[in-house]
Amino acid sequence: MAKKKFVVGCFEDEAVLFPAVKKVRAAGYKIHDVYTPFAVHGLDHAMGLRETSLHTAGFIYGITGTTTALSCISWILTKDWPLNIGGKPHFALPAWIPIMFELTVLFAAVGMVLTFCYLCQLAPGVKKHHFHARATDDLFVMAIECTDTTNTDDLQAFLQSNGAIELSVQVAEEGWWFGRYDNENVPFQNKEIVAA
Amino acid sequence: MHLKYESQLREPLVSGNKNYRQVTEDIVRPIEAKPTRLWYVGFFIAVALLLFGVYSVYREVTYGIGEWNLNKTVGWGWDITNFVWWVGIGHAGTLISAILLLFRQGWRTGVNRAAEAMTIFAVMCAGQFPIFHMGRVWMAFFVLPYPNTRGPLWVNFNSPLLWDVFAISTYFTVSLLFWYSGLIPDFATVRDRAFTKLRKRLYGLASFGWTGSTKHWQRHESLSLVLAGLSTPLVLSVHTIVSFDFATSVIPGWHTTIFPPYFVAGAIFSGFAMVQTLMIIVRKVFAMEDYVTLGHIEAMNKVIVLTGSIVGIAYLTELFMGWYSQNKFEGYTFWYSRAYLFSPYGWSYWGMMACNVLSPQIFWSRKMRRNVFVTFFMSIIVNIGMWFERFVIIVTSLYRDYLPSSWSVYYSPTIWEMGFYAGTFGLFFTCFFLFAKYFPVIAIAEIKYVLKTTGDGYKDQMSAIEAQPLEAFVKDQTHHH
Question: Quick one: which of A14, B58, B118, B251 has the most CB atoms within 10 Å?
């Protein structure tokens, strides 16, 4: 696997992080990722990440569940083993609604969680490069990918002038998960960024 | 959208002027410290109860349902009472984490983790009862629709008991996924500050390699929101379906259309009471008073007085309909078997009324809502009352049949029936003690998320925002970064 060099800047406050993200992008650097201890709202937009389609996947899983329940029950109760219950219709849709609903929810939830784990490359035993141990505690950690021409000293000074309190240069290996390590963070809004 | 502004009139949800680091320290402390003697004592009591329960169930499986005092007409007794009781308790967790998330109730962050854990353990306990009630428990898998060599002979999809199989198992699975997906980032927090190799390894496994990447958080937010949206109708459906077990029958006292909303309200009522019992202990034992504040306790007490009163109205409606319908069997069940104090089970009806309807009314007083001792005492009273409710519904409708010759003798449980119930307490508390020791009992990342709007010490910054002219305020609050 190819190794890549990153300049890492840590920020203490999300209010400092936001303008820094804009300036770094405006200066033409490629932000690999920003690691945060909690979901910082609007950071995905600031980084130019596209919206996730996970909820669409959830909808598809959900209707799969509904269809599964309806088709299985109707086949079983009208074709495979029709029971005469007091002469009532074999196709008893109202009585099937509870199970159809439950399977909708079940399929949507299980499917979405598995998709989430697949997309985020999360599974028991997965080891990833952690740029800073406090990224899950109280620091907002920005990793900038270096190219051949990046001057790491300049970049570090630039980050520091924008409020980074801790800086480092790290070399990390690409991930192994179906080669998707980098693809997911490619921004799609490559419009011009004006520094705040 | 997330506002940076919250009115100063709202009381802080996190007291003690914390920063992000302190939040981590406070919540992870019980995991990193050695368990106290009190923890061991509690844990071993729970395990002892669990073992007694295992022995009771062993006897029931070996010698059959005859180990219980169920009889000719009282075919459901303590077992189904306990089943409904535990399922009801299991409703508060998902209500807190899902419905209150959709309603943007900030105070849920302090209690949602423990409430969801409670939900999962309560549903585990609930599931034992219908399974062992089957008698030949080794054939329990017959409830699943799978192609078999008996025809194939399928399960009856038109039966509420089968709806229950689907509802309870879906509810358990979805609650577990919701809970665990919220735990992943917090396990990563524990992992990244672990100073022992074993802890680093175990929490490393449990955290699935979480890094805190912005893209992952974005997906995580989407996942939480959709799971909340799915869980909201789910939580309502589960107790609705449990009430269908009764409401779709033709037994007087069960055959009523108000059962679904009445059961759901009762479930929320008992669930919140159990959350109060547990959170009052947890905040004291682990010194989490800054995160589970009196404000949280007050908010939950408001839910308790509301749902308790809804349940009260349901009881009165039933009595009214028992008379208004002029149906002899309904009238007999409601006005003799239940509401007449000197009928064989009249004591349980009035116990229920006193615990569920009358006593929670003290929570109209703000002073009482914010009193920890009163709340703790009331939380136990409410759960006793809710147990009586299920007992009343089941036993008083069953012990006198349409045919006086099959009226049963007075039903009371055997020691093994009670032992089974005690055993589920053991299971519940064994799980809860392990959870309290090894899991972050409060959602760390979610507390940090609301800290700067609702934390004590950040509140005063709101006056600066309030001083802005209106246009600037609107622009600032609606600005998408």
Answer: B118
The residue assigned the tokens 């109060």 is: B276
Task: Point out the least confidently predicted range of B40-49, B85-94, B161-170.
Answer: B85-94
| Other Cβ atoms within 10 Å of B28 Cβ, number | 18
Average pLDDT, chain B: 89
Residue A138, pLDDT > 90, answer: no
Q: Flag if A117 and B208 touch (Cβ within 8 Å).
A: yes
Q: What whole-number distance in Å separates Cα of residue A135 and Cα of residue B18?
A: 18
Search chain B and give the residue with CA nearest A98: B163
């005859």: which residue's tokens?
B66
Q: Distance (Å, rounded) from C-alpha B428 to C-alpha B150?
A: 38
Question: Is B170 in contact with A137 (Cβ distance < 8 A)?
Answer: no
CA distance B463 to chain A (A): 18
Angstrom distance (rounded) from CA B337 to CA B345: 7
Residue B424 distance to chain A (closest CA, Å) = 26
B253 vs B247: CA distance, rounded Å: 9
pLDDT tens for B324-354 read: 999 998 999 999 999 999 999 999 999 999 9
Q: CATH says A3-50+131-185 is which class?
A: alpha beta
**Quick check: A54 contacting B, CB < 8 Å?**
yes
Q: From CA B342, how far away is CA B347, in angstroms rounded?
A: 7
Q: Which residue has the tokens 């299985």?
A: A72
Please compute the mean of the pLDDT values over residues B449-472 and round it to a whole number. Answer: 75
| The pLDDT of residue B457 is above 80 | no
| Sequence-distant (≥ 6) Cβ neighbours of residue A36 within 8 angstroms | A14, A43, A135, A140, A141, B212, B214, B217
Instruction: Calculate mean pLDDT across residues B384-399.
Output: 93
Q: How confident is the model at residue A176 (pLDDT cuts 50, 70, 90)?
A: low
**Cβ A167 vs Cβ A159: under 8 Å:** yes
Please identify which residue in the block is written with the tokens 């192994």. A176
Rounded to two decimals, the ipTM of the complex is 0.90
- Do you find a cis peptide bond into B152, omega within 30 degrees of 0? yes
Q: CA–CA distance from A196 to each of A131, A191, B308 (Å)?
A: 27, 15, 53
Do residues A184 and B216 make contact, with C-beta atoms less than 8 angstroms apart?
Answer: no
Cα distance between residue B440 and residue B229, in whole Å: 24
With H, G, I as helix, E, B as strand and everything else as coil, classify residue A144.
strand
Cβ pair B394, B77 in contact under 8 A:
yes
> Where are the domains positioned within chain A?
3-50+131-185, 54-119
Structure-derived torsion over alpha carbons of residues B438, B442, B444, B446, reported in degrees to the nearest 10: 140
A122 touches chain B (CB under 8 A): yes
Taking residues B187-210, what's their average pLDDT? 90
Residue B4 is predicted with a pLDDT of 65
Contact A109 B177 (CB under 8 A): yes
B66: buried, middle or exposed (CB in 10 Å: 19+, 13-18, 0-12)?
exposed
Query: Whole-angstrom Cα distance, residue B139 to residue B145?
Result: 13
Contacts 24+ apart (CB under 8 A), A52-59: A52/B215, A52/B218, A52/B219, A52/B222, A54/A112, A54/A115, A54/A116, A54/A119, A54/B219, A54/B222, A54/B223, A54/B226, A55/B222, A55/B225, A55/B226, A57/A111, A57/A112, A57/A115, A58/A108, A58/A111, A58/A112, A58/B226, A58/B230, A59/A108
Residue A39 φ then ψ, to 5°: -70, 110
Return d(Cα B21, Cα A13) in angstroms, integer: 12
